[in-house]
Design brief:
Helices cover 29% and strands 28% of the residues. It is α+β, with helices and mostly antiparallel strands. The protein has 3 domains: 54 residues, Molybdopterin biosynthesis moea protein, domain 2, CATH 3.90.105.10; 103 residues, Aldehyde Oxidoreductase, domain 3; 162 residues, Molybdenum Cofactor Biosythetic Enzyme, Chain A (3-Layer(aba) Sandwich), CATH 3.40.980.10. A hairpin with a 2-residue loop joins strand 19 and strand 20. Helix 3 packs parallel to helix 5 and helix 7 packs across helix 8. Its cofactor is Mg(2+). This is Molybdopterin molybdenumtransferase. It holds the Pfam family MoCF_biosynth. GO terms for molecular function: metal ion binding; molybdopterin molybdotransferase activity.
Length: 332
């Protein structure tokens, strides 16, 4: 593409670079318009001797077509493509779930001159119909080769996808001494139940358990038998060590401690484990005491991702440190 200044008759078929106004200052022609033969008399009437136009090369793709084609490259499962306008296309969710982004592919595309993709932050929990990203082609056209380069940088699942929340049967275990049981239930259960309901899931069972590894192991086994495909534990005190009661109960059942501790505040004392049951690795969140609050904390960051069947481990939890100082803590 090249920019030229041409008389109106010679500019037919090319793209107007700037808005043109009439004598009253009203917009007569909008930039981006492909000039037609019938526009020439009006341009002459406006006293325009020449116009700045974009002249496309044979291999150039118009901004609207380029935006659609880039959207088709970027959009993965759970993502809908909007209509193009002025080189822009918006992407929206077709299901609820966490937004997964191939950050390297996104960077590769945005490094190509003239192509831009702006997204929500990765792992944002989105709703059906919510806007996820906007694509803007900056020039009036881009070379075909640039779109080919974008496609080469992108995997089969695109750059953006929304993962469905497939684990929807949540078991809850509250661990406390008998004397503290009522207080723990009042303090913990409403916020946990609210999070489960907000995500469209069901609490299949809630077990009150004493702080004994044998009893906790039996309670966790009962939740698995009840059909729980994800378990949240909380209690009188947070898990304070890998050798604490809940981790030992997990190990007694043959489970795996994926990680203990998180660079997130509130939520440092997180336990993440997996219990093996009926061929499945059932995630277990050992929630810190902050789970009693509905303010955002570590549970809100990982629960949707686990419900979407993402296998989280040490690296994924460690990565939460970037942006891990959450709202309530920043105000402190």
């Amino acid at each position: 593409m090249r920019i030229e200044t041409l008389p109106p008759a010679a500019a037919v078929g090319h793209i107007l670079c700037h808005n043109l106004a009439d004598a009253q200052g009203r917009k007569a022609f909008s930039k981006g318009r492909r000039l037609r033969a019938e526009d020439v008399p009006r341009l002459i009437e406006l006293g325009v001797p020449a116009v700045r136009v974009a002249v496309l090369a044979p291999d150039d793709i118009h901004e609207d077509e380029a935006a659609i084609r880039l959207a088709q490259i970027v959009a993965g499962p759970g993502v809908a493509i909007g209509e193009p306008y002025a080189g822009r296309v918006n992407l929206s969710a077709t299901i609820a779930g966490p937004l997964l982004i191939d950050a390297e592919a996104l960077l590769s595309i945005n490094l190509i001159d003239g192509l831009t993709v702006a997204t929500l932050p990765p792992y944002t929990l989105v709703t059906d119909g919510q806007m996820l990203a906007t694509i803007k082609i900056i020039p009036f056209a881009v070379p075909e080769a640039d779109l080919a380069q974008s496609a080469a940088a992108t995997g089969e699942s695109g750059v953006l996808r929304v993962a469905p929340l497939v684990r929807r049967r949540i078991g809850v275990a509250l661990v406390s001494s008998p004397a503290a049981r009522a207080r723990v239930e009042r303090g913990m259960l409403p916020a946990i139940a609210g999070r489960i309901a907000d995500l469209g899931a069901t609490m299949v069972a809630c077990r009150d358990l004493p702080p004994d590894e044998h009893d906790v192991a039996a309670g966790l086994a009962a939740l698995l038998a009840a059909g729980a495909d994800l378990i949240i534990t909380a209690g009188e005190t947070s898990v304070v060590d890998r050798d604490d009661v809940i981790p030992r109960a997990v190990q007694r059942l043959g489970g795996e401690i994926a990680h203990y501790g998180a660079p997130v505040e509130p939520g440092n004392l997180l336990l993440l484990a997996y219990l093996h049951h009926a061929g499945d690795a059932v995630p277990l969140i050992g929630a810190p005491g902050c789970v009693r609050s509905r303010d955002q904390n570590i549970v809100d960051l990982i629960l949707p991702r686990l419900m979407a069947n993402e296998r989280l481990g040490r690296r994924e939890i460690a990565a939460l440190g970037l942006g891990g100082l959450l709202g309530a803590s920043r105000r402190g």
